[in-house]
Specification:
Blueprint lengths: L7 H11 L8 H7 L8 E6 L1 H7 L3 H9 L2 E4 L2 H11 L8 H11 L7 E4 L3 H13 L8 E3 L9 H13 L4 E4 L5 H9 L7 E4 L3 H6 L7 H5 L3 H8 L1 H19 L15
Parallel strand pairs: 1-2, 1-6, 3-4, 3-5, 5-6
Protein name: WecB/TagA/CpsF family glycosyl transferase
Keywords: Glycosyltransferase, Transferase
Pfam family, one: Glyco_tran_WecG
Length: 265
């Protein structure tokens, strides 16, 4: 509950059931950390119900989670369970909220963002927005990779070379989960000292190419309903699978364990 003391026992019980240890940093904490100078890549993941479902069977995705620096909770239903059943008040930090806040606070004098986008249109819109805010043309870069790029060694090396040449300070991936997270984990040792975020459709939302749910739906935990009505064919099977995972959590079944490093201040 809000204002209650979180004990190590409560935190352990939540981790033991869900298999993931979430950071307790607020959105403001994460934003502040994301503008620190660093000497190695810092990898952020926002975890929703779909992630929890995929983690049950995808070994590569689990390995990506193990390489993450910070996992934030991106699921209001899971937040409610955490609070009611475990007394643990985990901050809700969605990929869309996180990216939008970071994008708005990008500094033209210091930051060099690189976007791996679902389309050139998304990348162009994000770039033009930043150029209009005073960013130099060479300080903003993006790439929209072809289908199945993650299996093309030459394409991957080209992307990595572009990211390094750009002197990237913030790398954002919006090509879907678990593809984005797995790609980062696979190439983490080849990436520069950048803050790295896998934020799904957040790039398209901020670019204005997809419409996010109204704030009252988001605050009610019903953003999924808006998305389902927008893309029923694609999302109905996904949400049905996510509902099964949620039911398993509700009845107290333990999920696959993923052990994560502690978030370093």
């Amino acid at each position: 509950m809000t204002g209650s003391v979180i004990t190590e026992s409560d935190s352990h019980r939540l981790h033991e059931q869900l298999g993931v240890r979430f950071g307790h940093e607020t959105l403001a904490d994460v934003i502040a950390g994301a503008f620190r100078n660093i000497h190695a890549p810092v990898f952020y993941i926002t975890c929703n119900l779909n992630h929890l479902r995929v983690l049950q069977s995808d070994m590569e995705f689990r390995e990506a989670y193990r390489k993450a620096t910070l996992i934030t909770l991106d699921s209001r239903p899971v937040q409610v369970i955490s609070r009611v059943c475990f007394g643990e008040d985990v901050p809700l930090i969605t990929g869309a909220d996180l990216f939008d806040a970071l994008f708005r606070q990008m500094r033209s004098s210091r930051d060099r963002p690189f976007f791996i986008c679902s389309s050139d249109d998304t990348g162009n819109r994000l770039r033009q927005n930043l150029l209009g805010r005073g960013f130099a043309p060479d300080s903003v870069a993006f790439y929209s990779p072809p289908f199945n790029f993650e299996h093309d060694a030459d394409c991957n090396e080209m992307i990595l070379a572009q990211i390094r040449k750009h002197n990237t300070t913030h790398l954002f991936l919006g090509v879907g989960a678990p593809k984005s997270e797995n790609w980062v984990a696979q190439h983490l040792s080849d990436l520069p000292a950048a803050h790295i975020f896998c934020v799904g459709m957040a790039l398209d939302f901020t670019a204005g190419l997809k419409k996010r749910a109204p704030s009252w739906l988001r605050s009610s935990g019903l953003e999924w309903l808006h998305r389902l009505s927008s893309e029923p064919g694609r999302l109905a099977p996904r949400y049905a699978g996510d509902a099964v995972i949620f039911a398993r959590i509700l009845i107290g079944q333990k999920l696959v364990q993923v052990f994560l490093p502690a978030w370093k201040k």
